[in-house]
């Protein structure tokens, strides 16, 4: 790959494959960010639920697939640390996504890649029209008896 980066790619198909791979990586980063944001919101719900309770009260926490009995005083700081750690990972992933977007933009500029949104929108519109005109097929009225 390093040698092909110095030289021009062999053909358009190689450029298209590289571009597709880069877009796929960006989509994977965004899906991971979404997943982690959901984890942060779940951690927040747990923190808000147990924070006002008595610190000596028993609670259960899942650790590596094992349910462990602890007190709220022990669990609350651990859940807060986990939430903060996940938020840090989200920040790093957002930075990686920005770098990848810049890399894709540079790649698009270098190889003059343009996305044909108008063609795909036209195809989407025709598919929507076809889909909306479709109905339920019903046999003759007399055959249902």
TrEMBL record:
Keyword Chaperone carried by entry: yes
GO cellular component: cytoplasm; prefoldin complex
Annotated segments matching region Disordered: 118-145
Swiss-Prot/TrEMBL keywords: Chaperone, Coiled coil
Gene Ontology molecular function: protein folding chaperone; unfolded protein binding
Gene3D superfamilies attached to this UniProt entry: 1.10.287.370
Coiled-coil regions, chain positions: 83-110
Comp. bias regions, Basic and acidic residues: 118-131
Keyword Coiled coil assigned: yes
Short name of any one Pfam family annotated for the protein: Prefoldin_2
GO biological process: one example: response to cold
Family of the protein in this entry: Belongs to the prefoldin subunit beta family.
PANTHER family, alphabetized: PREFOLDIN SUBUNIT 2 (PTHR13303)
Name listed for the protein in its UniProt record: Prefoldin subunit 2
Organism for this UniProt entry: Populus trichocarpa (Western balsam poplar)
Source lineage: Eukaryota, Viridiplantae, Streptophyta, Embryophyta, Tracheophyta
